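Suppose you are handed only these lines of text.
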Amino acid sequence: MLCAPGNAGIAADAECFAVKADDVSGIVGLARSENAEFVVVGPEAPLVLGLADELAEAGIPVYGPSARGARLEASKTYTKRLLFKHGIPTAAAGFFSETRAALAYLRTRQAPIVVKADGLAAGKGVVVARTLAEAESAVRDMLDDGKFGAGGRHILIEDCLEGEETSILVVVSGWEYVILPSSQDHKRIGDGDKGPNTGGMGAYSPAEVVTPALMETIDRTIVRPSVDAIAAEGIDFCGTLFIGIMLTADGPKVLEFNTRFGDPETQAVLPRLATDPLHLLWAAARGALGGYQLQVRPDCAICVVISARGYPGHYATGDAIEIPAALPPGVAVLHAGTARDPAGQLVTAGGRVLGVTAVAASLSEAAAMAYDACESVRCSSKYYRRDIGGRQLRRL
Ligand code: AMP
Ligand code: GLY
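From them, the structure of the protein bound to adenosine monophosphate can be written out as follows.
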């Protein structure tokens, strides 16, 4: 297995190449020179740049949508229009590129209200405003002050939905798809969902709120219509459709689409598959998902993210990390922002550093195992939430 660019963790399993993920011609060249038989594209940036299209053109099988498919993540306006056109449940919204019109629309709505930059903003382009004044300043930040660059030149003003969130990962191949087990993410930096939003501080699977009956409703009202809508728009989508859903009193509604696996949801979902994930992705790439039987373990999984203290604001890198050589069965420490310094020492190299994952018969057991492992990781700048899975544990 080859990985580009990889990190200090995956280097134990794969040969890593110093090619950046968004260097499209570099990756295609690498795939060619190494005679790659199959390429799985992880992040959104290269998908948006057309990496999957170029690999397909080079005759290399690929899992990950075309640039047109990746637009479902790259443009919230595009996705919202698609959802409206196909009658898929989502919050009401207005589309704006002029401040005056946006502010006039705001005056016709009530707080709380949500202001979203159209384009990719690394999870920071959404403001859930508690007052209209807060919403006005978000509009001005985006449209007048260009705080989000080109991604904020167009905005959406969306009604605020209330409820619990769940993430549904769907492996899609054209008109066919396989829904992976449900999960829930914890987006805020602090315990009790306090503080600013992050890329995700922890996740668990299954999300008990998503009962089999509710999953059936989500499939019927959201997943099937979305896959059909995408195919009907002429997009040959082969990749992951990550659907962020709000479970409202009025039924499940789409918050967003991503066109890749979610982080940290994936760390909690994949360990529960008895099916080899590679087998599933390969089936998708070959257009062979029809009738695919996914095998899921009855276990619970949790992922607690260890970040560098200060994240999502300013944080230091280069801090030494020591992970115990032997971890208990069912526990894995997955790397995100890690690197080796010139002396070979494992060090922090990003905001979110490690994903400590545990699988057990119950969520409480898995949480206890993951937290023991978090304790045992030595790193002077480590930070993690203490309440991952807490909402579900309190409900049990
Ligand atoms: P998005 O990137 O569009 O999923 O937005 C990021 C986060 O903002 C979501 O996970 C929700 O927590 C919140 N959010 C987005 N849209 C809404 C909405 N219409 N109502 C309430 N919260 C929202
Ligand atoms: N956890 C949400 C994401 O990957 O965007």
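What can we learn from it? The pocket of glycine (ligand 2) is lined by residues 185, 200, 258, 262-263, 265 (CB under 6 Å). The first strand starts at residue 2 and ends at 3.
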